[in-house]
Amino acid sequence: MKYKELAAVLNKMLTLRWSPVAVKLLKPGEEVPANVYEPSVPLRHCQAITIARRGNSLYMPPRKHACPDGAAIMGLIPMSPKLRSGELYLLFKKLPTIECAQKMIASRQEFEPGIYHATVLAPLEEAEFEPDVVIFTIYPEQMMWLCCAASYATGERHTFHTSGYNSTCADLTVQVMKNQEMNISFGCYGARAISDLSDFEAYMSVPFKQLSTLVEALKKLAVKSIPEARRKIYMPPVIDKTATPGDTAANQVELRIDEERCTGCGLCEAFCPEAVIKMTTVNDAAKASAPTAKNCCACYTCVGQCPQKAIQLTVR
Ligand code: SF4
Ligand code: SF4
């Protein structure tokens, strides 16, 4: 799938606010891709991502990197002694002791200085280069679906490694390139202070080589899971009342199945985790019934799955 198609599917399945950003680190001597431009002023890596997700393609040699920490972490320049020692983290009051700062610095991933000579960034749909990583600026719900998509084929859970420091450079670029595993970041001091990252947004970075697999899994999830969860199909109609004090021991579930509406499709029986619903035959037609309603745990699955809206659940 071409980048444009990948971006279109991701946008459609996840309803993204921002374009995913293709990021590549260029080695010395590597050709600068077509249609990227050098910005007129230096930018931090997090700012370059902001500008790219808004539709611009950038070429960022070291002279255009405004954050010396980020540029050094990505192997574009040597790290300054104050950043290497952790002294600056103390001056910014971001960490309490030099030992603490050094521990944080030692545990993050970095590239050796000089192994790369520039970064290039573009909205995924416009990238004219094969990215190393693709960085999403997204909401937690969209992040959840990317996690589900990554688990879809393998069943693997995810282990994320992040710190709240050096967000887009260390956690989203270097680490993902080195480990070839997706990672999250909630931003860092620089990324929050200097970009338009909203309070409700965070980042997720995916190794480009995994993007097609992820997109295929998202297509499958978009058949049922994503739209149902977004429609909140299990939301009890009485949810606002559940916080009022009451006799919790005596809660009773009343389950009513409208025989007229029921077409006997059997979905409620198939989905009920407590085997409360059974299909019976009434006048030669299959109908749902709830002979053991006392076992109902009020999960609202049957209510949400019934295509006829034939099931009504009341919790007293
Ligand atoms: S899901 Fe609805 S229509 Fe289908 S059997 Fe159950 S009650 Fe009837
Ligand atoms: S609410 Fe849940 S447990 Fe109760 S009948 Fe429906 S699916 Fe079964």
Q: What's the structural blueprint in terms of helices and strands?
A:
Blueprint: H1 3-14, E1 21-26, H2 45-53, E2 58-60, H3 68-73, H4 81-85, H5 87-91, H6 98-107, E3 118-123, E4 133-138, H7 140-152, H8 167-179, E5 183-185, H9 189-194, E6 202-207, H10 211-221, H11 225-230, E7 253-257, H12 267-271, E8 278-282, E9 285-289, H13 301-305, E10 311-315
Antiparallel strand pairs: 1-3, 1-4, 2-3, 4-6, 5-6, 7-10, 8-9
The site of one iron/sulfur cluster has 15 residues, from helix 13.
Write out key terms for the chains shown.
13 helices, Alpha-Beta Plaits, alpha+beta, binds iron/sulfur cluster, 10 strands
Residue windows where pLDDT falls under 50 for at least 5 positions = none
User: How many structural domains?
Assistant: 2
Q: Mean pLDDT, nearest integer? A: 93
Strand order of the largest sheet: 2-3-1-4-6-5
Q: What can you tell me about this protein's structure?
A:
It is a single chain. The protein is α+β, with helices and mostly antiparallel strands and 316 residues long. It has two domains: 225 residues, no CATH class; 81 residues, Alpha-Beta Plaits. The chain has 13 helices and ten strands. The protein has a six-stranded antiparallel sheet with strand order 2-3-1-4-6-5. The protein has a two-stranded antiparallel sheet with strand order 7-10. α1 runs parallel beside α10 and α7 crosses α10. The longest helix is centred in the middle third of the chain and has 13 residues. It is elongated and about 80 Å long. The mean pLDDT is 93. The site of one iron/sulfur cluster has 15 residues, from α13.
